[in-house]
Every structure is written in C-alpha cells, then in structure tokens.
Amino acid sequence: MNAETGLARRYNRAALTFLAPALLMVVGFVAYPVAYAGWLSMFSWDGASAPVFVGAGNFIRLAGDPLFWHALLRNLLVAASAIVFQVLLALLIAYCLVRIVPAFSRIFLFFYLMPVMVSEICIGLLWRFMYNPYFGLVNAGLKAIGLDSLRRGWLGESDTAFLAVVVVMSFTYLGLYVLLFTAAVRSVPESVYEAAALDGAGHFHKFVSITIPMVWDAVRANSLLAIIGSLKTFSLVFVLTNGGPNHASEVVSTYLYKMGFGSFEMGYAATVGFAQMVLTAIGAWIIFRYLARTRFARGTA
C-alpha cells in the first residue's frame, strides 16, 4: 500500500508539473481579469483619476439601463439565429455532403471554410463594400433581377442594419459547424444506414431518425459554442455598423466598448462586461442542461 501511495504521489507531482504552465496562464489571463473586472465594477473611474467607490451603484444603474437590455436582446436574437442558420443548417449540409454527394464533399468543405480562414475584420470590410447603397453588389444584384424597389442602404437604416449583420454572421461561421458536423456524421456506422435503407427509409427519415440522435453530442457541443460566441460577438458588429444606426444593431460588447473607450466610464464598462460574463455562463448552462434532458427524453421514449 505504501509503494502504491508513493507511486500515486509521484504521478500527481508529474501531472502538476505539466499542468502548472497552463494553470498559470488560466490564472493570469482568465481568473485575474475576471476578478479585477468584478472589483472595478464597484467603482466609478474614468481611466485617469482616482477610482471612487460606489458599491452596487453601477449594478443598480445597469438594471435600469434600457440600452443595455436592448443590446442584450440583440445578443439573444443573434444566438437564436445562430442555432437555426448556423448549427441546424450546418448539420443538414453536413449530412448532404457525407450521404448524398460524398464525391464533392471536399470541394464544398473548402468553400464553406474560406470565410472561417479569413479575419473577421476583412470579412466585415468586404461585406461593407457589398452592402454599399451606391455601388455595392447586393443592390446591383437586386437591380439586375428587376427588384429595384428593394434596394436600400442596408447598414444605414434601422430597419435593416441588424438583419444585415445577422446574415454576415451566419455566412462567416457556418463553415466551422459544417466541418464539425461532417466529422460527426462520418462517425455514424454505415450498417445503421444500410438497415434503414432495407426498411425503405429515405434520406429525410435517415436524417431525422438516425443522424440527429446519433450525433446529438455534437449538436449539443456546437449549440453551446454558437450561443457563447453569439453572446460575446463584437468584431463583425463593430466593423459593419458599430452598433448603429441609433443603436439598432447594438450588442453588449459594442455597448461595453462605447462606455469604456467612448464615454471613459471604465467602472461602468467593467460592470457591463462582468454582467455579460455571468449572463453568458448562465445561458450556456441552461442550454446545455436542456439539450442533455432532451437527449434523455429521446433515449427513453
């Protein structure tokens, strides 16, 4: 027993030695910034003068801030669109690539992954050009097919700015989930599909009754990634609209940026960021638990 205990201790020390650099990075770049943001959220600070302690004043202000809740609602809408137009659509595309057109799957995967390989800033600048009301490709395409009445300043009008941003996000991140789902669908045993084919099942029934249940872990993980990414999205919104016009496409991250580096309210910006982190963690936990229960229900039905 003593020899086994000594061996276990040596293994633990070796594991801690290898884990120490990663733990230090987590503490330095995750735990400390989060703790500092929580501390700073209790102060009023402009970034230059001495911080003034306000206690829960920033959180009380946040609770009654309509712009914050408007921005949070936009984040939730982005998350909902990500589930539909990124995760679910990617699963359908992945099934088609693996089961229907496997010979061309690599070619299609390359094109789907191109936006993922390009910087989000470049993607945003490209789409700003495409949405340009005077010489953009979107309005030019509408004019070419006789839909002149639909031409407009997509990023400059309150009615269309947020929708235009959501389209860009869906286009940008779709390829990542297609790649992940392609690997998941390929892992499904071929014998299962062959048995379904013998029973006369078509592609629709195979997709609903076989593919979705057997890749449910991937659906859950990708949904979690999409929701977390949607709740902290910043780059594309900042480049395309900077939250405008008139806060029509404002999200929490752009609102935080404006409070911190536009109005120089660093304490309140820290409060917004801290609240964003907490709400993102809660939302991710709820979705993860819900999807887990859904799988349990499907398995016991």
TrEMBL record:
Family label: Belongs to the binding-protein-dependent transport system permease family.
PROSITE patterns listed in its UniProt record: ABC_TM1
Residue ranges crossing the lipid bilayer per the database entry: 14-35, 76-97, 109-130, 161-181, 224-241, 266-288
Keyword Transmembrane: yes
Species annotation: Rhizobium setariae
Compartments where found: Cell membrane
Domain ABC transmembrane type-1: 72-287
InterPro entries linked to this entry: ABC_transporter_permease (IPR051393), MetI-like (IPR000515), MetI-like_sf (IPR035906)
GO cellular component, one term: plasma membrane
Alphabetically ordered keywords of this record: Cell membrane, Membrane, Transmembrane, Transmembrane helix, Transport
GO biological process, one term: transmembrane transport
Keyword S-adenosyl-L-methionine: no
PANTHER family listed in its UniProt record: ABC TRANSPORTER PERMEASE PROTEIN, DIACETYLCHITOBIOSE UPTAKE SYSTEM PERMEASE PROTEIN NGCF
SUPFAM superfamilies: MetI-like
Membrane topology summary: Multi-pass membrane protein
Protein name: Sugar ABC transporter permease
